[in-house]
Specification:
Number of domains of chain A: 2
Largest interface: A-B, 103 and 95 residues
Radius of gyration of chain B: 27 Å
Shape of chain B: flat
CATH architecture of one domain in chain B: Orthogonal Bundle
Number of helices of chain B: 11
Structural class of chain B: alpha+beta
Largest sheet of chain B: 5 strands, mixed
Oligomer: heterodimer
Shape of chain A: globular
CATH architecture of the largest domain in chain A: 3-Layer(bba) Sandwich
Helix content of chain B: 25-40%
CATH topology of one domain in chain B: Fumarate Reductase Iron-sulfur Protein, Chain B, domain 2
Order of helices and strands of chain B: HEEHEEEHHHHHHHHH
CATH topology of the largest domain in chain A: FAD/NAD(P)-binding domain
């Protein structure tokens, strides 16, 4: 859908200021960048990670006293979806060697490795097998496969990019295993971008010293997911997939080992008991919490369920306060809301403008600073542009790229974005784009070792649900590698753990009642119910008419 | 009173948060028919968000919400028009008087196979999916594809034994199943395309030799010592390497040609 007549009127203001702005840009005159002190001020006032308001210390559990965003804290202090005293643990509905919670890239990789090791596997997932953030990753997957590269440089680039806050053994794991992951995918029949001779086509990315980004068209994650899912589907003798049946609570045995999970059939609203000798959490991130109201690049089911379940059995987390925001997510048209617009647009000279067509920031501040400045302009100064669906955004003046570098530059340098907008009737070489920061990635997650073990015996975790691989800042292409490296390790290690001899004793979910008691004693009077499984996008008007609900 | 109004004016504007749409003052609504029943929804919303605005909560029929997972295929018609249209609910904007039906699942036959027991011979595909030859080339599959994949093109390529061509043409497939829902010959096109791509990548596309060599080196523990040293290194020394000792591979040299000055860690 092209811009509405009302928005077209506003675009005229952008066009009115453009010639003078282009002239200034030609003279190399830029809107002044902030100094370090100003940066800190705008970050503290407006960056979602830095703002003190909207955060609080968690009162219960392994991370008691740590500060989290309210939405995250609410879920860490939540009560269970099921009533513990109504649960019947005596009848086991599903049983396997390994239960995997989550059917994305990490869970499916784990399933294949456990199956290779001769184990029976159940994958429990809230949507369809493969519906995940994995499938949405476009850019690529890192691995030091070139002669001029090595795991040494992968390690250095990753830990430097994470401001040296990464958990070192996890970085070592990813640097070591990355080429093995790529080879594994190649053998499973993944169509990598290759030269006619079979050499991997690799690219640089932000923060790389060597070209290390492997890809499959511009849908690398989707191709990974298609291939490993297809392989899992051909192994029905060892891998059972339960779709629309998410895990909602972990089950322990009386020795404190993880022994399965309670599953929830979303369609019939029944609960099932799934018993297993080992459990792998691979439930992904939290983009759909829409921290502080932000749109997200994440899939429908990214609601932090795994972190919540782990928290109730005493497994804590790290860096969950750190969220990756991208300053320029799409705000209009609706089909593209939340999707990323690459930094390259600003790199090519496009200005960021308010409703009056005026500049208010230097367009190439670091990502977190740029995000904070956009938020300030729209929400504090009220100079954002409102869309017909009530979203707020700021203009990103892409047409001036053609003015600066010659006609056709936008189309040549930004082909994917050009097509994406052209499909909806917007020519970004002639009209500006409407943008706002968007929530992209959960940097933190549950605590694990390099062998994917948690503090609870028999409970393993892999993928976006774990914390520490990326420290406080993730490099492009390391999330897909994270998923495969740790997914594979979790499958192998869970199988080894079982081979070491596991005897499951009497099942229990006493930890749920204990946790709820702790919440009560901490004086939390009206806890939310979690896992929330899926977000609810009902409008206030509709909710107010649901008179059967409280 | 005047002061209160001032405070009111200073408050942040009421805006849509997350994926929840609101109807700002003065904005227009349009009628759409969800499975025949009329709802008024804001213009410019996608079908998916329009249905959520109307009060629906999806369990099935929503996935990535970014046009790549294939969970939300939708069939619709417009008032007064005999034509059927196909699209993804997350990628198609509502128009006045659309008649919408979600098709979150469509049954399709999928063969079971062990990839390592197959080969690059097209006969392998014919044996697993003999229904391939029930295709009558009506092209309804291509017309239904929301990704503009030439479905008939890759099915025809396979009939002619050209697996490489089929793999290439079918690459953008998101496996939503709309092709299969329209097929006169009852083919599961998207499953056949998946098999063709995996066979192409495993048996026809040349293997990456530099990758195999790196894998052999890793399995021979060539980098274990180097990584162990990094693990034990303090932040100060890591920072020193990060800032001073990382040569950057030039952007424009072809992969495999550039040799850095420092080769001790390769």
């Amino acid at each position: 859908m092209s811009y509405t007549p009302e928005m077209r009127e506003l675009i005229k203001k952008v066009e009115a200021t453009r010639p003078a702005r282009v002239e200034r840009a030609r003279r190399n005159e830029h809107y002044p960048a902030l100094n370090l002190k100003e940066r800190e001020e705008v970050l503290n006032a407006y960056h979602p990670d830095c703002q003190k308001d909207g955060t609080r210390a968690v009162k219960v559990g392994s991370n008691k006293g740590d500060i989290f965003q309210d939405q995250v804290a609410d879920l860490l202090e939540s009560k269970a979806l099921l009533r513990p005293d109504a649960v019947d643990l005596s009848t086991v509905d599903y049983e396997a060697d390994v239960l995997i919670i989550g059917g994305g890239g990490a869970g499916t990789s784990a399933a294949l490795m456990a199956s290779d090791a001769g184990k029976s596997v159940i994958i429990s997932t809230k949507l369809r097998h493969g519906d995940s953030n994995t499938i949405m990753a476009e850019g690529g997957i890192q691995a030091a496969t070139q002669e001029c590269d090595s795991p040494f440089y992968h390690y250095i680039d990753t830990i430097g990019g994470g401001h040296f806050t990464n958990q070192p053994d996890l970085v070592e794991a990813i640097a070591h295993d990355a080429p093995l992951s790529i080879s594994w995918l190649e053998n499973l029949g993944m169509m990598f971008n290759k030269t006619p001779e079979g050499r991997m086509v690799v690219r640089h990315f932000g923060g790389s010293s060597r070209k290390r980004l492997h890809s499959a068209g511009d849908m690398t994650g989707a191709e990974i997911m298609r291939v490993i899912r297809d392989e899992a589907r051909s192994r029905q003798d060892s891998i059972t997939v339960l779709e629309f049946t998410p895990a909602v609570e972990l089950i322990l045995d009386e020795d404190g080992k993880c022994a399965g999970a309670i599953l929830f059939n979303m369609e019939t609203r029944e609960f099932y008991i799934a018993k297993a000798k080992a459990v792998i959490l691979a439930s992904g991130g939290f983009g759909r919490l829409h921290i502080k109201g932000f749109a997200t690049t994440n899939h429908y089911g990214a609601t932090m369920d795994g972190v919540v379940m782990a928290y109730r059995v005493g497994v804590g987390n790290k860096y969950l306060f750190s969220t990756q925001y991208h300053p320029t997510g799409v705000v209009y048209p609706e089909q593209n809301v939340g999707l990323l617009i690459t930094e390259k647009v600003r790199g090519l000279g496009a200005h960021v403008l308010n409703i009056d067509g005026e500049q208010f920031c230097f367009p190439l501040e670091p990502r977190d600073v740029e995000s904070a400045e956009l938020i300030c302009e729209a929400m504090d100064k009220g100079k954002g542009i409102l869309t017909p669906t009530g979203r707020v955004g700021l203009w990103l003046d892409s047409p001036m790229i053609d003015d600066l570098h010659g006609e056709g530059t936008v189309k040549k340098e930004l082909p994917a974005k050009f097509i994406q907008f052209a499909r909806h009737g917007i020519d970004i070489s002639k009209d500006p784009m409407l943008v706002y920061p968007t929530l992209h990635y959960q940097n933190g997650g549950v605590n694990v070792s390099a062998s994917t073990e948690t503090d609870v015996p028999g409970l393993f975790a892999a993928g976006e649900v774990i914390g520490g691989v990326h420290g406080e800042n993730r490099l492009m292409g390391n999330s897909l590698q994270d998923i495969i490296t740790f997914g594979r390790r979790a499958g192998v290690n869970a199988a080894e753990y079982i081979d070491g001899g596991v005897e499951i004793k009497k099942l229990t979910i006493d930890h749920v009642a204990r946790f709820e008691k702790e919440i009560d004693e901490a004086g939390i009077t009206d806890p939310v119910t979690a896992p929330i499984i899926l977000p609810d996008y009902s409008t206030d008007e509709v909710i107010s008419r649901r008179w059967a609900e409280k | 009173m005047a002061e209160a109004e001032n405070i009111q004016a200073k408050q942040a504007p009421k805006v849509a948060t997350g994926d929840r749409a609101i109807l700002p003052e003065g904005a227009k609504t349009i009628p759409v028919y969800v499975m025949g029943k009329r709802y008024e929804v804001p213009e410019t919303l996608t079908i998916m968000k329009a249905m959520e605005f109307a009060g629906f909560k999806f369990i099935r029929g929503a996935g990535c919400r970014g046009g790549i997972c294939g969970a939300c295929p939708t069939v619709y018609r417009k008032a007064g028009d005999y034509k059927l249209f196909f699209g993804l609910a997350c990628q198609t904007v509502v128009e006045p008087n659309m008649y919408l039906a979600q098709i979150p699942f469509y049954p399709a036959n999928r063969a079971t196979y062990k990839l390592e027991e197959l080969s690059g011979d097209p006969e392998v595909i014919y044996a697993l999916y003999p229904e391939l030859f029930r295709c009558v080339a009506c092209n309804l599959c291509t017309k239904a594809c929301p990704m503009d994949v030439d479905v008939l093109g890759y099915i025809s390529a396979l009939k002619q034994g050209n697996i490489a061509k089929a793999a290439e043409i079918s690459f953008d497939c998101i496996q939503c199943g709309l092709c299969a829902s329209r097929c006169m010959g009852e083919l599961p096109q998207y499953h056949i395309g998946q098999l063709a791509r995996r066979i192409y990548a495993k048996y026809i596309q040349p293997k990456a030799e530099h990758l195999q060599k790196r894998v052999d080196d890793i399995n021979a523990q060539k980098y274990d010592e180097v990584l162990k040293n990094l693990l034990a290194m303090d932040k100060e020394n890591l920072e020193k390497i990060y800032i001073n000792e990382r040569e950057r591979e030039p952007d424009l040299t072809p992969p495999g040609e550039w040799v850095p000055q420092d080769t001790q860690y390769l």
